[in-house]
């Protein structure tokens, strides 16, 4: 009788395949739970939200939430920090060699797209700040402060080269954040003032207006 030996390489390949499959499932379920958490936290806040409601919104058993996240506070922190990191990524590739008008306009457009397409993210972040930022204050005092400082160096370099008007970079960011996020945070007010306007037209018109306003403030025409 011929004895058939198992091929260790085939076994290793099978193990890796199973692990990759498990990682994909984990990533998919975590994303579903975080997206659901953003909706629930934006509507109800940290105190008013429940893990049961988050799991129900995600279409997953409540036990799954605790499998991936230790607590309600854990998923809340992941959600809020993920929102902020995504917003900052839109300006991370900034270089002193970039055209300031194009770079700033692209950043404003990215922030406006985020406000119109993912308003719950902005509302959740606003809730966190209005409550004193108890969960993410340390991140704001360290990571966000460092990010603003790094981008400020580039903006100042543009000003020094005469490529744009001298501005206070931190205050430029405050203006951009406020002008773009208001279309998510105060959408009810905007709906009341503008009336039943087509949403796609509103986004296009508002984006062009905010881009033009910011560029003019930077001495970049617009």
TrEMBL record:
Residues 27-87 form the HTH tetR-type domain. Keywords: DNA-binding. InterPro entries: Homeodomain-like_sf, HTH-type_TetR-like_transc_reg, HTH_TetR, Tet_transcr_reg_TetR-rel_C_sf, Tscrpt_reg_YcdC_C. GO terms for biological process: negative regulation of DNA-templated transcription. Gene3D superfamilies: Homeodomain-like (1.10.10.60), Tetracycline Repressor, domain 2 (1.10.357.10). This is Transcriptional regulator, TetR family. It comes from the Bacteria. Residues 50-69 bind DNA. The keyword Kinase does not apply. GO terms for molecular function: DNA-binding transcription factor activity; transcription cis-regulatory region binding. Pfam families: TetR_C_3, TetR_N.
């Amino acid at each position: 009788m011929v004895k058939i030996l198992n091929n260790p390489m085939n076994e290793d390949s099978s193990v890796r395949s199973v692990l990759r499959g498990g990682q994909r499932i984990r990533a998919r379920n975590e994303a579903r739970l975080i997206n659901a958490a953003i909706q629930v936290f934006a509507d109800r806040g940290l105190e008013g939200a429940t893990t049961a409601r988050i799991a129900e919104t995600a279409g997953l058993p409540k036990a799954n939430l605790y499998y991936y996240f230790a607590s309600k506070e854990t998923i809340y922190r992941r959600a809020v920090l993920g929102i902020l990191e995504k917003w900052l990524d839109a300006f991370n590739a900034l270089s002193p060699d970039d055209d300031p008008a194009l770079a700033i306009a692209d950043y404003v457009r990215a922030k406006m797209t985020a406000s119109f397409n993912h308003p719950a993210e902005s509302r959740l972040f606003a809730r966190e700040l209005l409550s004193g930022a108890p969960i993410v204050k340390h991140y704001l005092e360290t990571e966000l402060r460092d990010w603003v400082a790094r981008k400020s160096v580039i903006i100042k370099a543009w000003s020094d080269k005469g490529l744009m008007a001298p501005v206070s970079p931190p205050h430029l960011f405050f203006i951009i954040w406020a002008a773009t996020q208001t279309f998510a945070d105060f959408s009810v007010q905007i709906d009341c003032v503008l009336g039943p306007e087509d949403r796609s037209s509103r986004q296009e018109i508002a984006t062009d207006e905010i881009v033009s306003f910011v560029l003019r403030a930077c001495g970049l025409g617009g």
